Structure formats: structure tokens, C-alpha cells
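Forwarding the complex inputs:
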Amino acid sequence: MYRAPVEEIIHTLRVTAGLDAALEEGRFGDLSGDLVDAIVEEAGRFASTRVAPLLEVGDKHGTPLKDGEVTTPPGWKEVYREWIDGGWNALTGPEEFGGQGLPMMLAIATFEMWNSGSMAFGIGPTLTLGAIEALEAHAADDLRQLYLPKLVSGEWMGTMNLTEPQAGSDVGALRTRAERAEDGTYRIFGSKIFITYGEHDLTDNIVHLVLARLPDAPQGTKGISLFLVPKVLVNKDGSLGARNDVFCGGVEHKMGIHGSPTCTMIYGDGFAKDREPGAVGWLIGEENRGLACMFTMMNNARLAVGIQGVAVAETAYQKALAYAEDRRQMRAPGWKGEGMSPIVEHPDVQRNLLTMKGLTGAARAIAYACAHAIDMAKTGEGDEARFWSDRANLLTPVAKAFSTDIGVDVASIGIQVHGGMGYIEETGAAQLLRDARIAPIYEGTNGIQAIDLVQRKLSLAGGQHFAGYIAELREVAEAVNASNSIEFGETAKRLFDGLDDLAEAGSWLQAAIAAGRVSDAFAGATPFLRLFGLAAGATYLAKAAVGGNNAGRSALARFFAENLLAETAALKDRVIHGAASLLAARTALS
Amino acid sequence: MYRAPVEEIIHTLRVTAGLDAALEEGRFGDLSGDLVDAIVEEAGRFASTRVAPLLEVGDKHGTPLKDGEVTTPPGWKEVYREWIDGGWNALTGPEEFGGQGLPMMLAIATFEMWNSGSMAFGIGPTLTLGAIEALEAHAADDLRQLYLPKLVSGEWMGTMNLTEPQAGSDVGALRTRAERAEDGTYRIFGSKIFITYGEHDLTDNIVHLVLARLPDAPQGTKGISLFLVPKVLVNKDGSLGARNDVFCGGVEHKMGIHGSPTCTMIYGDGFAKDREPGAVGWLIGEENRGLACMFTMMNNARLAVGIQGVAVAETAYQKALAYAEDRRQMRAPGWKGEGMSPIVEHPDVQRNLLTMKGLTGAARAIAYACAHAIDMAKTGEGDEARFWSDRANLLTPVAKAFSTDIGVDVASIGIQVHGGMGYIEETGAAQLLRDARIAPIYEGTNGIQAIDLVQRKLSLAGGQHFAGYIAELREVAEAVNASNSIEFGETAKRLFDGLDDLAEAGSWLQAAIAAGRVSDAFAGATPFLRLFGLAAGATYLAKAAVGGNNAGRSALARFFAENLLAETAALKDRVIHGAASLLAARTALS
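Prediction (whole assembly, two chains):
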């Protein structure tokens, strides 16, 4: 069973990702390091004792749909209620609406723990957070007053409604339509698919944020507007009124996260017979500017999905390590004990476990660094805010894609460590891979993230932001070098090499994009993102270890640098030399 | 739906893996190239039209156990009957017992197709084949006469009973006991787990091969004997007699291959109340020499499991390609068509599909080359037979582990190509990953295979066999180089580099083993096996293309060489420089 790695999370937040420095600058009012520790510890306790027991029951029971109502698995409602009563949903919400206004870093750290407990449970509140951000930034004041207090507390949950059968990665292709009503509201007609927590019984109301198209809207992404469509209409005093014309038409049968209802949502199909047809919606932001509003919530949702990769990897690692310490088979080389050795003593199993732990720690640090940048941007001004906003934008696709890719890798290695038991569902290792497998897909596939990184993020600040980031990472390698610590082995040299590969591949891509060689650049996008994640992650692991006095951390940083980082050369090669053979091979696909 | 890639299979068999040359030497009697083609085509038809429809129904229905009886999914019995009536089970069986005596290469090629249709279906006959081999090589004549005709025809199926809860990778730890009876038979007591097709309703009888320990046996692997234990006792005339005291105590709830019953088998628990307790067994080979007999079947079973990795990868590729050609999202760079382009036009999707196809083709060629070596050893004599036996031994762990690793990788990429649809079970892509995930585990985990390769296979013929194999592969690179074909790009150079990495890493490991630095060698085993697979696979893809006139094949070989092969440098580095940091990092595991 999952036990929150509280010390590791705190160290990554405060030392590696920069929270301590930000606290010293007084960016977060009277938030102190001690309070950070206390919050993480308390969240860790809740995640380990209350959320983690939901993991298996969620997988087994799923979320059946009957007569338009979705039932969450046994115990989920109670834990959700306890969870919001503990104030966990309100952690980062605006203080004006009852939130605690804490930094995004704490949100992400706690998200990690909820999702380690159960990804299917953890994903729900992520969407509420996105809805809060969109409403806070773009909604009219009366809507904010009416909805935000209850979304912040968690009394109601939120959803994001983008996808339609023909509009997945290409959201501009959506067809759901919105018509203007005489009272200034809108009527929404159409259906959406893959709506996470689109219908459930955890809360009395569900606040759907829906992308739709007005009759006179321009084509494509410039004709999309964002609407708030509550499941139950809300009276002016905040009490619940009539049922709105939005219903769940089906729940998907998925590979994993069975506890998370993935719904088809049908708007304006006249199920609410007592009224005019159409789901009543309220415009958020301006007409035809919906995509900009949606990006507000999508960016942070991407980071939140990234942390799911870290979360499931952490759980998989803990499970595999516990098994490897317990299970005895054969005698490892050098084993001096009685009889068979625990399999953790076998070098090949150590490689598996260290790979799991190294990738998890690297991805965690990247995700926390991204959260840090979001916090710095929010608490900064002018050039500084722009700098940190660029940093958040640069790191978001990496935090999403690298973390969720390694989430799948690590969960799969975790099965392998269990041998035959890993394939038996009751062991629980298989569920982690089934759960993890969604994260590289939703909130923009990892291919889309890689293209975003190459096409839009490398050019931030005229390309200087990326260069500056690498310079910062090089400082860490310098510090490792200067430490002269024997336990780092060749870490510094390896970091320099990896960062050189990152810089070189990045420059090549910047040049390709600048020259309009888009296919060449896109062909290298996925290897580049992985290269970015490995090089940055290795550097953060070293940063976590350097200057400290923790043998485990320096040994892990060294293992990562000397075993996993060597891949960067091949990835750089793929970026720079791979496109020609890739683009020439269309003929081989048949 | 799967369509057998008949042309690719034939080309890989005949050209790449060397069947044509062996046919020319007259090694297989009157078997001709035309007959090979006809057999592959006919098997392909059966696999595509009869086996493939079992895939989904197997996953949904599983194999429920009730009152000791296991029911296979609807339609399975009929297809199995048709399949044996078609003579497919008897393809390679000894002619003396009704088999067709065809080469192992054809067995492996057809296994690929059955398993592409449905891994859960395909695994059953694999075990029968193993039982046939063990009986043919080691059983007394009366047992051979009684059992082999029906095992060869497929009227009865076979199983392998090795694993016990405390004895997985370490088979020497098994506790199932055998007692000598006065009539020369034995009584078996104990239980076995993870027994594939241990109980089912496809055949009237099931022939269990069971490892057990005599009361006076030495400890460990030198005290293990192999017994034949039929589900139903067989009268001297071959008719069925009384039920034997072996029963299925449970069927596992697995991540995938739900159509394949994975059973706990209980021997001698007295369920057959009308007789003395103990399951009646017959010794195969000599007492305490059971492991040697078991290795006869295990080696080929490892290759057969390897081909499962190829098989599921092929199905995943076909499925992903079909989806990518149909699904339209956004406009790919350079897309000139109307509206959105099929996603196959996007470079990042092409990378995914080419990676899938390249890895599948590479693994197929390695597996077929291994089968070729088995055939050459069987049809050769003296030094030649020894040479080919070494070759089969060298390639078996690679054919098992590399193929099943890429099976998981390719199935996972296949999900990714489908986007959100990939995560929905009805799409079928998720099942392929769930099915594929067992293959790196059973028949010796891939970690065990890597250790076998490093510890026992690199030293064959005093290390010269490995060196000679690389020299053969270099000849292919030379041929590519000499072809001067523009479509190969840098393939030759890349192959030389990859083979140098393989040679260098192999020499380092040979030296480490020779010097007794076992931990160092084992630490590098898994990266070395992958390096071996990539370098050999890339070379085989080039061999398939060179001299031919097929633009797709040379483009694929080039893509593999220029995009995937670059990884060998990092893998070599991990082998040679990785152990120090790995072994120093035990402290990081907590």
C-alpha cells in the first residue's frame, strides 16, 4: 500500500524546485517552510490512509450508469466529503471565494499524493481546479460570485467539455452549437465525448465548461466560445433550481481508471421536457474567444496530468520495491545470507528499481519546477513575470509528456519486477499500468505536447529563454563538478554532455522552424522532448543531491547520469539526422 | 482485423533467415519454396479468418472454472477442432507418429500467425509442441507409442508444470514430491501454479509434464525428475480410463490473455476417491535428470514465446496503421488534400508507425533466424550440427526477450496512435497491450534471459561463436555498403557502428565473466540483450532489403538504422560503464 514519500516531496519542493528561495523572498505572505512541511505531511497521511484504499475498489466497481445517473464506487463519496471537509480542494483557490490561496507548488505536490493513492480519484478535482481558474480569470462577476465559492470548497465539481468524435486533437473542428437567448444566456446543443467526471454522485451539482460555436462564428478555432453549463440550474441565492438539459448518454469501458467516469454528454436533446429545448449556458469571456479561456485551464491541467505520471510511477516503485525486498529467489552474486536472497539483491532487479526511482524523481522535479514557475509568474511583475511565464510555458509540455511517458514505463517495469505475480490482477501492479496508460493520451497527446514544445516553446523570447534555461542547468553541473565528491562519479561530465546534446538538438530545431522546415522539426519532436526530460531531470536529481549529505540522493543522481542519461546522444542524433529517413519511409507503411 | 502479412513472412523465412539456402541444400527432403509459400498462405488464411475472430470473445468471456471444469470461450472448441483437422498441430511433429516433419521455421512462422490472431489461443498448442519434443527425446518407447500420436494430431494437449509459489525463476526450489509405486509408476503429490491450459474443454485428455522431487533426491536442481501425468489415465489400447488424481484448483484473474486458462494444479489431493491417493505418473528420462529433459522443451518454448511478441506487435501495427489511414485530424505539414489530413500524414505519427513496423520486422527476423538454426542443427551432423546448435542457443534468449519487450513497446505505441479511442476497450488496442504484457514474464523472465545470454551464451565455443556471428552480420553491412544504393542512406555506416558496439560490449562482458566479476556482468545483462536485438535486427532488415527491389523494405531498413540503431552507443556505455554506479546505488533503494 502506498505511503506518501513526504520527505522526498518536501525536499524536491523546497530545495530542488526553488520553493525555499521563493519563501525567503516573501512571495507567499506568511507561508513558512514549516507550514509547507506540515501541509505535505497531513496530505500524505490523508492520501495514504483514505485515498489509497479507493484504488482497488475503484478498479473493480467502476462507475455504472443507470437512468442517466452515475454511481461512484463504494466509499468514494465518503472520502470525497472528508477530503473537501479537510479543505484540500480549497488549497490554492482564491481567498476571496474561500480558498487558501496557497502556491501552485503545493497544489501539485498534493495532487501527486492523491493520484498516487488513486489516479481515478485524483483526476476529478483536477478538473474542478481548471474550472476555478477559467472562471476566476474570465467569467463575469455575478457568475464568479455564484459559482466560485462552491467550486473552491469542492461542494460542486467542474468539467472540461472539448472533445467531439471528429474533434480530438483538432478542437477547431467541433460542432456543438450555442444559440443566443433573449435573456442574455445561451442554449447549447450537441454532444461531447470523453468527459471526465461528466456525471457522478459525489456532488449535488456539476459545472460544465463547454466549448461551442455560435451560428455566426468564424470557422476553426477562431469561432469557438466557452460556456458555463451547470447540471442543475442555480438560483440567484445559490440554491439549486431545475435540472438543466444536459445528460450523460454513456460511460466508457476503459482500460483503466475505472473509478473515473468518462462520459458522453448530451446537450439540449430535450430530456428536460418541461422547458424549451437547449441546455442553458452562460458565456465565459467574449464570444469567439473561448479557446483563449480554455487555454487558461488547459495549461495547468496539463501539468496536473503530468503529475499523474509521477504519482502512479511512485506507487509502482513502492510496490515493486516492497515485493523485491520480500520475494526470495536464487542467490544473488555475493549474497552472504542464508538460503535464497531477496530479489532486490540481484543486480538486474536493482537496475529495474533504480530506473523506476530515477525516472520518477526526475519527472517529479520537472513538474514541481513547472509549478514553481507558475507561482513565480503569478507573484511577479513586468519582465520578471514574463520570464517566469515563459519558463512555465517551456516546461509545461515536458512536465506533461515526459512524466506520463515515464509513468507508463515505470508501471510496466513494476509488473516485471513482480514476475508472474505482476500479471495477476489481485497483485495490483497490472492496474497501475492500466491506469497510467491514459495519461500520455488525455489533455493533449504526448505527440501534441512535443510539437508544442518544438513549435511554440523553443522560440520563447526569441529563443533566448531556452538558452537561458540550459545555462541554469549547467550551473548545477558546475556545482557537482566543484563538489569534488567521489560519490558523484562521472555525474558532472555526464550532465555537461547531456546538456550539450539538449542545446544542440534545440538549436537545430529552432533553425528548422525558422527556416520553415516544419516536417523536419516535427519529425524530431518526440525524441527531443524525451531528451529534454532526461537532461533536465538528471540535472534536478543532481541538484537535489549536491551540497546535501544524503548518500541515497547522490547515488541515485549518479546512477541516472551514468546509466540513463547516455540516451541523450541517440536522441539528439534522431532529432538532427532522423528526419530524412523518417520522411522517406512513408512508402514502408502498408 | 488482422490479415496475415504472408509476403513479409515468406520473404523473412526464405531470404532473410536462410530457408531458401537450406532448401537448396536439400535439408528438408522434397520441401520446396512453393510448398513453403502455400503452407504460409493457407495458415495465414486460417489465422485471419478463423483464429482472429476469437481475440475479443476470448478477452470478454475468459475461462470460468466450475466444479473443477474449465470452459473455454464460445467458439474456441470449434476453431481448435478445425485447426487440428487442418493438420496444423502436426506440422512439425515426427512423421513416425503422424506428424508432417516440417522444419521448425514453418512452425514458428505459423505460430506467429496463430498468435497474431489470438495470443490466448496460440499459447496452448505451443505447450503441446513442447510436450511432444520432451517425449520424443526422452520418454520410453511405450509412452511414446501411447501418447505421441494423439499429441501430434492435437487430439490431446500438453502442459508444462514447473512453477510453485516458492519456485519461480528458481525451479530448483520446487517441493512437489514423487513416490515410487510398486508397478514402476510414481505417485505425485503437490501443487503447481501458473499452469497454462492446465485444465480446459478443448480436448478429452491433457498430458501434464510435471517436475517433482523423489524422497531420496539431492537438493536443488540436481534432484528434480520429470513425470508424465495424464488428466485421464490411458489404457494400453489408447482408450481413456479412469480420471487421474490431478485437478484444477483455481484459474487466475489476469491482466490479459483471458482466453488462456492459467491454472493452479493440485496433484494427489485425493479428489479421485475411488483409488489410492496420489496422481499416477510415469518417469520421463532418468530419475533426478528431469531438468535436462525440461530444457528440451523450454528452449523451444522460449522461442515460441518470443514469436508471441512479434505476433502481437504485428497485430498492433496493422490496427494502428488502419486507424491512422482513416482518422483525420488537422492538416499535416505539406498536406495538399481537402480539409483535415489522415493522421498517418503527420510526421510524429509516421515515427510511431515506422518504429512499430521496424521493431516488429527486426524481432521477426531474429526469431526466424533462431528457428533456422534449430533446423540446421537438427539436419546437420558433427561440427556443423554443433555450430548450429550454438547458434540456436545464442539466439534463443534474444528471440525470447527482445521480441517480447518490443511486443509490449509496440502494443503501447499502438494505443497512442489511436489517441483517446486507444484507451476504450472496445477499440481493441488496449487488449493487445494487456495480452502482450505476459510474454516478457513467462518462460523465464526477460531478466533471466539476459543473464543466460551473458553468462552462458557469450562463451559458446570459447567465445568464438559470438565473434563469428558478428562477422556474419558485418558481411551484410558490407553488402549494403557495396550496393551503393541511395535509398539506403547511411545504413551501412550505422550498421558498422552498431555491430562495433555489440562486439565491444560483448567482449567486455566475456572478460568480466571470465574474471569472475559476475555482478558487473549481470548489471549489464539487460542493456546488452537489447543492444544485441537492435544490432542484429537492424542487420536483418538490411539483409531483407539489399539486392531486392522493394522500396518499402530499404526505406524501413534505413529508418531503423538511422533512427533506432543510434541507441546502441548508449546501451554499450551502460554495459561497460553502468555497473559501478548501479552497484553503488543499493543505498538509494528505500
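Chain A touches chain B through 95 residues (CB under 8 Å).
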